[in-house]
Amino acid sequence: MKNIRSIPVLLFSLFILAGQLPGQTISPDKMISHIRDKGESIAFTIPGWIVRVAGNIADNDLDENEKEIIQELTNHIKKLRFVVSETIPSDYASKFGNMKNYMEKEQYE
Asked: Does the CA dihedral 58-60-65-71 come out positive or negative?
């Protein structure tokens, strides 16, 4: 009888822990690093201050409303990371799925 009572607890624990297992999500930053490390690719980072300077230069010819939009968009960027690759890693599809899970979990738009 004791074993029957422990089964629901075991199943509940399994579902709770399954959502927190490492490897089911991967951040975009780690995804770029993974692609960079697995093949013929180059990854580079543009710091946020450069993005803000470019935004300030670009908004010189815009009206006030458009300037505010540009300022709001660029003020929230910490950095931009890019990766350029000749080939993609063989595990790209699963890693991409994990990144989509991460973005849904973190509520990316």
From this structure: positive
Q: What is d(CA 95, CA 99) in angstroms, rounded to the nearest whole number?
A: 6
Length of the chain: 109
* Residue 59 CB neighbours (<10 A): 17
Class of residue 26 by CB neighbours under 10 A (exposed 0-12, middle 13-18, buried 19+): buried
The strand pairing partners of 44, in sequence order, are: 82
Residue 33 has pLDDT above 80, yes or no: yes
**2-24 pLDDT, tens per residue?**
555 555 554 455 455 444 455 58
Nearest-Å Rg of the Cα atoms of the chain is 22
Between CA 97 and CA 104 the distance in angstroms is 11
Question: For the segment 40-66, what is each residue's pLDDT rounded down to a tens digit?
Answer: 889 999 999 999 999 999 888 889 999
Q: In the structure, what pLDDT confidence band is assigned to residue 87 with cuts at 50, 70 and 90?
A: confident
